[in-house]
Amino acid sequence: NLIDKLIINRYYLSLQGDIKMSEFIKEVEKRRTFAIISHPDAGKTTLTEKFLLYGGAIQQAGTVKGKKNSKHATSDWMEIEKQRGISVTSSVLQFNYNGFCINILDTPGHQDFSEDTYRTLMAADCAVMVIDASKGVEEQTRKLFKVCTMRNIPIFTFINKMDREARDPYQLMEEIEQELGIDTCAVNWPIGSGKEFKGVYERNDKEIIRFIPVDGGRKEVDTKIMKFDDPELVNELDDELYNKLQDDIELLDIAGNNFDLEKVREGKLSPVCFGSALTNFGIEPFLKHFLTMTTTPLPRSTGEKIIDPFSEDFSAFVFKIQANMNKAHRDRMAFFRICSGKFTKGMEVYHYQGGRKIKLNQSKQLMADERQEVDEAYAGDIIGIFDPGIFSIGDTITTGKTKFAFEGIPTFAPEHFSLIRNKDTMKRKQFVKGVEQIAKEGAIQIFTELGGGMEEIIVGVVGVLQFEVLEHRLKNEYNVEIIKQPLPYQYIRWVKEGCDLSSLNLSSDTKKVQDLKGQHLLLFTNEWGVRWASEKNSGLELLEFSKN
Ligand code: G4P
């Protein structure tokens, strides 16, 4: 087992008494990095904010997400987000709690940006799924969850809004199991809901945490913990609730899934906690459970070898590129997940894909609602590096003697295609630059005819809202207006390098194109065309996503 080996390795290093090394190991051991997913309005922003509140990163709730009109304050880098009230981009926040250093990666709630969610999940070691207790599994939860399972990471469930009328907790857990195909295990259990919400029963400690609603949840709440047979509790709960709780506990022990940490870490069993983010209830218990079940930063693979996060050599990869972080300067920031070693500001690294050494000067980290200059960061952390246009999604930077690249982040197959042209032909340069830059950030995918120029570009997107983002950004950032013509393609397949496309036997409506990296691919209008291509051309390998 790889993790065991790494731990033994670490143990020997500590025996050697290398103090500098052991300080470094302590820092990495403190790190926990997770993504947070939910259907819009389930309470992701509120929960994130309450984590920050408990971590002391903010003094009062309400600072990250203001009132409705200033919603998504942390990520309102784009007008379109504000107009539509959706979060297009994801942000990263760091806070400390009980000696841990926790990185939260927010994900866009809209399914049209599920590719962005996938990339964000690539940077996370586990995910927290927030579910509205009155609604259960919703459309977006389903879609985002699917993306989560592609990564096989542990998923922790927080069932939120217990202070409102909620559905039956058994039903909710069953729905998660059936709709999402993951086993669940209740870590705690709610006593009533809505006006009758009395708190949760902690199954491990066999204790009850009483719900004491205060002041709209702006400050941390006092907790009252009681034993199950505490006469005060028996008094406080009416007979019906007390008896129901007793039955529930018995039933859970007999019929519920047993807790199994191995399964949790394999992403096959999701621990479930109940609470109410708005009133701060259940946040701390959730954090505590979560922290005992999650691991230190996980090792990452280069395809040939595994990189130990505790190795002193620094390595990181780009999972996200974000333009317009600062409207005044129109800058681009490349977000890196640090996979091993320690980052120090100004350090020199080797950029594998660029094939040269570069200095990492302008580095940022998000703490609560502020972006701060970061001087040091460790494996598990996320840093934003100013990008003069040299980085692409998936790029690797390293400091060690051996040069390597982490396994690429797959590109999702786009499902919608349009041909775009520049309205004003005099602005060709801006048009090409804009489209290429936006494609490099991974916000769209672009294709051109084999050997063709950039006058007409085929744009492929996973969700149609991405077209809107493209049009909006070209107009606002590059002063370019486009003519967009929808194309009938529905399926896309990459072909293996070296395959001669001209000799292929294809249906007449199949289009041969190349992507930004010069890889060849085929666009089909229907499934029949895909089948024709593979049946009529023996040995032709059609790939559903590009690994580069
Ligand atoms: P999201 O990021 O997942 O989209 O959800 P968000 O946190 O913005 O929460 C959506 C709405 O649900 C907000 O109300 C928020 O106050 C409310 N909410 C979140 N957690 C709880 C909870 O535990 N209990 C209850 N009762 N409500 C909760 P809003 O009216 O849309 O916004 P606001 O005016 O309160 O800011």
UniProtKB/TrEMBL annotation:
Its main location: cytoplasm. Residues 29-298 form the Tr-type G domain. GO terms for biological process: regulation of translational termination. GTP binds at residues 38-45, 106-110, 160-163. The keyword GTP-binding applies. It comes from the Bacteria. It holds the Pfam family GTP_EFTU. SUPFAM superfamilies: EF-G C-terminal domain-like, P-loop containing nucleoside triphosphate hydrolases, Translation proteins. Keywords: Cytoplasm, GTP-binding, Nucleotide-binding, Protein biosynthesis. It is found in: Cytoplasm. GO terms for cellular component: cytosol. The keyword Oxidoreductase does not apply. GO terms for molecular function: GTP binding; GTPase activity; translation release factor activity, codon nonspecific; translation release factor activity, codon specific. Gene3D superfamilies: P-loop containing nucleotide triphosphate hydrolases, Peptide chain release factor 3, domain III, Translation factors. Increases the formation of ribosomal termination complexes and stimulates activities of RF-1 and RF-2. It binds guanine nucleotides and has strong preference for UGA stop codons. It may interact directly with the ribosome. The stimulation of RF-1 and RF-2 is significantly reduced by GTP and GDP, but not by GMP. NCBIfam families: prfC, PRK00741.1, small_GTP. Belongs to the TRAFAC class translation factor GTPase superfamily. Classic translation factor GTPase family. PrfC subfamily. This is Peptide chain release factor 3. It comes from Thomasclavelia cocleata.
